Amino acid sequence: MRFTKSAPRGNASLVDDNIYDDVMVSKQADVSSVADEIYDDVMVSKQQDNVSSFANNSCTEDQLSKQKADLQQPGPDRKSKISPGHAVLLVLMALLVIAVFALSITVFYLTKNERCQTLKEDLESLKMIALDETCPKCEAGWERHRGSSYFFSNYTSSWTDSRRSCTDLGSDLVKIDSREEQMFLEIRVREIIKNNETFWIGLTDSKTEGSWLWTDGSPLNQSLSFWALGQPDSLGGAELDCVGMMKTEIPDEVRWYDRHCNDNLRSICEKDSKIQLCFCV
Ligand SMILES: [Ca+2]
Ligand SMILES: [Ca+2]
């Protein structure tokens, strides 16, 4: 509030105007002051709000940092986000990987052991051949078929002498174990036969008449007997106790006949072809 100066009475109107102006100026000054104060209050309040907001934001960032650190650190307080189904799947996958690895190792060692065994067998065979101590020499002319090797003699001798010749070569008179073996021998006999010759085989009933045995002592299997028609015909007591195979009257047919064991005939020797692999080079 400003005080106005006094004025002469004649100029009362002018004085009133001055007073009014002073009052207005003073009022405007007061209003401005109040507005400034309000503005200052608002600014202070706003600054306080900003500080509070900044503090709040800082607190939130701190909390986020703390939560991030907690997530990075394993511990019982942090809950796992892996579901039980995923955990089971992971375990199964791990077991599968382990099983595949173990299987690969097993296959590797089995293959390795098999190769080693084969190499050892080959080495032993080479040693026996090189040393030439235990392997008897075999004659030329052995023929391999399936699991056996066969020798068709060009000389003739009795059944007993023919068998001895075979054993001297690490073999015995042939034992016919199958129809296929019979067929093979038939084909070879037809190919090498010259004058309707007969070849001794390893079958005899010299111990008991009518009881046919192979040289290894096994009895003849009647379902695998290949007698010629009407054979054997010594059941009446004749000394026909050894068996040979020869062509019959039927073209290309080769069958068995019982003969005197002292007859001089050709013969067929048989031995395991594995033995031949070792003994014959
Ligand atoms: Ca045989
Ligand atoms: Ca007989």
UniProtKB/TrEMBL annotation:
List the Gene Ontology MF annotations in alphabetical order: carbohydrate binding
Q: Any stretches that span the bilayer, and where are they? A: 87-110
Look up keyword Heme and say if it applies: no
**Residues of the C-type lectin domain:** 145-270
SMART domains xref list: CLECT
From what superkingdom does this record's organism come? Eukaryota
Q: SUPFAM superfamilies given for it? A: C-type lectin-like
Q: Which UniProt keywords apply?
A: Disulfide bond, Lectin, Membrane, Transmembrane, Transmembrane helix
Please name the InterPro entries in this protein's record: C-type_lectin-like, C-type_lectin-like/link_sf, C-type_lectin/snaclec_domain, C-type_lectin_CS, CD209-like_CTLD, CTDL_fold
Full protein name: C-type lectin domain-containing protein
